[in-house]
Design brief:
Blueprint (H helix, E strand, L loop, with lengths): L7 E3 L4 H10 L3 E3 L6 H10 L3 E4 L14 E3 L5 H11 L20 E2 L2 H4 L4 H4 L5 E3 L6 E3 L2 H17 L3
Parallel strand pairs: 1-2, 1-3, 3-4
Antiparallel strand pairs: 5-6, 6-7
Length: about 160
């Protein structure tokens, strides 16, 4: 039986890492501002997510083992590397299939959805994706290409082959 990919919950301090996990295609919730440790742990347990944090206090909760991943690193690259050592992260899992804003699964954009973009922009877009939840439209622009390159680098450096 194939194991389903891990789902994550990043605390407030790890929002950037959370967005990169979304970019890689992982279902990743990012904590709302001011959520308590108890609330975070409850969300993680209820939604079967791994809670990624730098807050040492969280690993002391009795229900933390197997749910909380403590990172000691303090910059994005080092956090990505440390997380990759603790969980089998595939940085090329399913890139850009989740909304970077709200985490929903993206759909291929239909012409009606693309009609909100300026005509000049539409002419240069090969493929675009639409978020059914927050209505955002995403496409392969230079920003996404740079992020793809970054994910590829992390894949080569950190993934367990």
């Amino acid at each position: 039986m194939e194991q389903s990919p891990p789902k994550f919950l990043c605390d407030e301090m790890l929002q950037r890492l959370g967005r990169w996990l979304r970019a890689a295609g992982y279902d990743t919730r990012i904590a709302a501002e001011g959520e308590s440790d108890y609330e975070l742990l409850q969300h993680a347990l209820r939604e079967e997510r791994l809670l990624i944090t730098r807050d040492r206090g969280l690993i002391e909760h009795r229900r933390a083992p197997g749910t909380v991943i403590l990172l000691r690193a303090d910059n994005l690259e080092a956090c990505a590397e440390e997380l990759s050592r603790q969980v089998a992260i595939e940085w090329q899992f399913s890139p850009f299939t989740r909304c970077m804003v709200c985490n929903a699964a993206l759909q291929e954009a239909r012409p009606k959805q693309l009609s909100v973009l300026p005509l000049a922009k539409r002419e240069f877009i090969d493929a675009a994706y639409f978020c059914p939840s927050c209505q955002q439209i995403f496409w392969e622009g230079s920003h996404v290409r740079r992020m793809r390159t970054h994910l590829q680098e992390w894949h080569e450096r950190f993934s367990h082959h």
